[in-house]
Amino acid sequence: MTIEELVIGSRGSKLAMWQTNHIADELRAKFDLDIEIKRIKTQGDKILDSPLSRIGDKGLFVKEIEAALSSGEIDLAVHSMKDVPTQLPAGLTIKAMTVRADPRDVLISGNGDSLADLPENAVIGTSSLRRQAQLMAFRPDFKMADVRGNLDTRLNKMAAGEFDAMILAAAGIDRLGYGDRITERLPAEVMVSAVGQGSIGIEVREDDQRTIGYVSGLSDADTFAAVTAERALMAALEGGCQVPIGAIGKIEGGVLRLSGVVAALDGSRVFKNEVTGRPEEATALGRQLARALADAGAADVLADIRAQVEAENGFGI
């Protein structure tokens, strides 16, 4: 009997490799497969001296991997769903999302202070406009410092005293075994997560029934519905990782509750709302919440941010 072969494409960071090996192990446990992991360097991995908002391209961490998938060089791609644009290339589809890890952001502070107890004018390391905007809404005295690089690089910068504190995704910290460094897991009342944060997605070619047959059983229905709703909100607001939009969906008792936030970069204006409905209405709920936020004033905030970025960098987002 011939053993089937699968080639998985992934970024090469330690976290990406953890996620990809996790998927590979899940597939091996279910099927007799010979799996090869192909590391692919993306634009976001190559450009480390600029904040994401200044690079000006969606799909910074997936485009090269998707190109390899479209060409048949790989059979499937493993992504952090927060990195995946809402508009996929023709012929590709997200066929599975695994059980979501903790979607929250976490604070790592140098002296163990909580976010509220950080000293006045504390310097916080983050390149995320979403995080920066919500931090400024919480404490306008905070000072923001851009930080890029993989998780180890960021943690080393924190240990070297470059910042008073740093905001990171709980999922990555937990998956790599750094949970003991977390000072505080930030509640949604303070920090609404990035769309798709904590979820691992599996992207395949739409016409590749063989690979679809392997990966479909890895998907978690609740995670898929929640992240689908979040991505529908993001798409309706024409957002991306460079725009301060947060959303978190959660299913309890068969009800999908979707919360979203849009904030001005200086934190002066914050728009939050939520909707509830059935999980099978995920896309409609995301669009409904997007309309509610836009009508409340979020559309003007996003337009101002896009104009500001285009004026500063010469491109739109």
Compose a concise summary of this entry.
It is built from ten helices and 13 strands. The protein is an alpha/beta fold.
What is the topological layout?
Elements: E1 4-10, H1 14-30, E2 33-39, H2 43-46, H3 52-55, H4 63-71, E3 76-80, E4 92-97, E5 105-109, E6 123-125, H5 129-138, E7 143-145, H6 151-159, E8 165-169, H7 170-175, E9 184-185, E10 200-205, H8 209-215, H9 221-236, E11 245-252, E12 255-263, E13 270-277, H10 282-313
Parallel strand pairs: 1-2, 1-3, 6-7, 6-8
Antiparallel strand pairs: 3-10, 4-10, 5-8, 5-9, 11-12, 12-13
Helix pairs in contact: 9-10
Walkthrough of the structure:
The protein has 317 residues and is α/β, with parallel strands linked by helices. It folds into 3 domains: 1-98 and 199-219, Periplasmic binding protein-like II (D-Maltodextrin-Binding Protein, domain 2, 3-Layer(aba) Sandwich), CATH 3.40.190.10; 105-185, Periplasmic binding protein-like II (D-Maltodextrin-Binding Protein, domain 2, 3-Layer(aba) Sandwich), CATH 3.40.190; 221-317, Double Stranded RNA Binding Domain, CATH 3.30.160. It has helices at 14-30, 43-46, 52-55, 63-71, 129-138, 151-159, 170-175, 209-215, 221-236, 282-313, and strands at residues 4-10, 33-39, 76-80, 92-97, 105-109, 123-125, 143-145, 165-169, 184-185, 200-205, 245-252, 255-263, 270-277. It has a 5-stranded mixed sheet, with helices on both faces. A hairpin with a 6-residue loop joins strand 12 and strand 13. Helix 9 (221-236) packs across helix 10 (282-313). The mean pLDDT is 92.
